[in-house]
Amino acid sequence: MTRNKYVLIALTFLICLFVFEYYFLFPRSASMGESIRTSYFTLLKYKQVISESGNTEGEIQSAIGEIHNIEKKLIDAKNELFASASLQGEISGLAKKANMQIATIRPLSSISLNNYSAIPLYIEGDGDIKQIADFFKYLESSDFIIKIDKMHLNITNIQNPKILKFKIQVSALMKI
Questions:
Q1: DSSP designation for 145
Q2: Domain limits of the chain?
Q3: I want to staple 84 with a disulfide (CB 3.0 to 4.6 A). Which of 61, 107, 135, 153 is the partner?
Q4: How many CA atoms lie within 13 A of 111 on its CB side?
């Protein structure tokens, strides 16, 4: 009889243990497991963001390097008058290199753009299409970053249609 009592007590203990585990521990372990999985996936996302931030930092450094390279091609002058004169000299040299005939080069009023100033020039002259194309090619490889704002080509002599009259407005940037 005592043996049956011990078996009954052991069986009751096992049933209580099972009930305790099933109703109290199992739901908490399931919710804890879900919480651990959620935290794990959040950590994976953070890890990915952190690893990608290294790429972004490299791209920012590359962009800063490109800005420094571009700033080397800005007009380096003390004021807008000197900047305009150096741009006129550059344009005259490029036109002479392209064998174009320049009739007029005149500065226009500069435009302030935050820390920079746009220095515009008006150019008028004659040349054939190859000379004008060479001039544009030389503009691309100039020491300055030169932008063509306006351009107008015209045939002025019907007997010699190869010669074109051009009117071009260009501008370059100067750091203030």
A1: -
A2: 1-72, 80-175
A3: 107
A4: 10
**Per-residue confidence (pLDDT) for residue 99, from 0 to 100:** 93
Inter-residue long-range contacts of 155-160, CB under 8 Å, 24+ positions, other chains counted: 156/126
Question: How far apart (Å, rounded) are the C-alpha atoms in residues 111 and 96?
Answer: 27
Say how far apart CA 89 and CA 167 lie, in whole Å. Answer: 18
What is the C-alpha end-to-end distance of the chain, expressed in Å?
106
Mean pLDDT of 111-123: 90
What's the token pair of residue 72? 């080397």
27 pLDDT above the threshold of 90: no
Say which residue the tokens 């000299």 belong to.
89
Separation CA 161–CA 159 (nearest Å):
6
Q: What is the pLDDT of residue 115?
A: 84
User: Is 0.90 topped by the overall pTM?
Assistant: no
CATH topology of domain 80-175: Alpha-Beta Plaits (3.30.70)
CA 55 – CA 116 distance, rounded (Å): 30
